[in-house]
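Help needed: design a sequence for this.
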């Protein structure tokens, strides 16, 4: 792990391997450990970069509101900090996908392709945004355990919850390691995020969309619709997985990512 200086803070970053850059961006309220089953195998062939976003893991916490745009700016700083000067494949899960839209908007020349896992393009409804404000207040008052209690039951499929208690405990401990102020700031940032549906037809990089078949947060039908709106997109549904598909069914997710990366490499070679 290394610490990379970004505007007003420091991000904790795992960077490993040589080759084309592949950036993995975690969901909420997790940290870079959620990608450990991807980081290790893909670092054999690619330069894998896996940051803790601002407010999470070992990265700096900025109290208040941290927007998805600010997180995209941080990632731009991280790429500079780890000497990546080629366009990256940006793989983001859920909140990581919300950050991906902002990265596309601001830093398009630095993007080679997108992998969007279990995410959505639309903004929060007013009710959902109000719920996030309430959630942020609760986490600030009662600590990270309140975030874990609220989020854990939604994130994994009922089958995963029953069959893989070690994975559930691992995800819970990722949540508990995050500081309440960091969780609250990202929740408020998500509440304030803009609608990005209009961006979808403008996405001019190859895009892979991945969704767990039992995802209750961003269901497959919603992601399939997004895929239809993006010009060069393909959609893959992952069996035996909910919202955390890369952790719940890593073989299927890694297979889909691998096939996508090979297709990008062969496109580049031809
Ligand atoms: C995530 O996994 O990042 C969250 O479920 C995103 C959200 O709460 O909208």
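Sure. Designed sequence:
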């Amino acid at each position: 792990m290394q610490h990379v200086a970004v505007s007003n803070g420091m991000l904790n970053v795992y960077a490993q391997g040589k080759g084309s850059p592949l950036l993995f961006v975690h969901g909420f309220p997790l940290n870079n450990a959620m990608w450990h089953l991807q980081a290790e195998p893909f670092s054999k062939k690619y330069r894998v970069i896996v940051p803790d976003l601002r407010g999470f893991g070992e990265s700096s916490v900025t109290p208040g509101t941290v927007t998805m745009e600010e997180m995209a700016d941080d990632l731009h700083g991280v790429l500079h900090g780890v000497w990546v000067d080629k366009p990256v494949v940006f793989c983001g899960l859920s909140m990581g996908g919300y950050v991906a839209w902002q990265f596309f908007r601001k830093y398009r020349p630095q993007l080679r392709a997108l992998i969007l896992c279990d995410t959505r393009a639309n903004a929060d409804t007013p009710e959902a945004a109000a719920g996030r404000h309430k959630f942020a207040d609760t986490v600030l008052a009662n600590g990270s355990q309140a975030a874990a209690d609220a989020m854990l039951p939604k994130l994994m499929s009922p089958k995963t919850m029953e069959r893989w208690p070690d994975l559930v405990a691992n995800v819970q401990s990722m949540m508990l390691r995050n500081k309440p102020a960091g969780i609250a700031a990202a929740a408020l940032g998500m509440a304030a995020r803009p609608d990005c549906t209009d961006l979808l037809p403008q996405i001019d990089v190859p895009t892979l969309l991945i969704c767990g078949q039992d995802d209750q947060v961003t269901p497959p039908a919603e992601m399939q619709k997004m895929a239809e709106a993006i010009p060069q997109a393909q959609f893959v549904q992952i069996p035996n997985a909910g919202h955390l598909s890369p952790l719940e069914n890593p073989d299927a997710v890694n297979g889909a990512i691998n096939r996508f990366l090979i297709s990008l490499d062969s496109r580049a070679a031809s």
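The radius of gyration is 17 Å.
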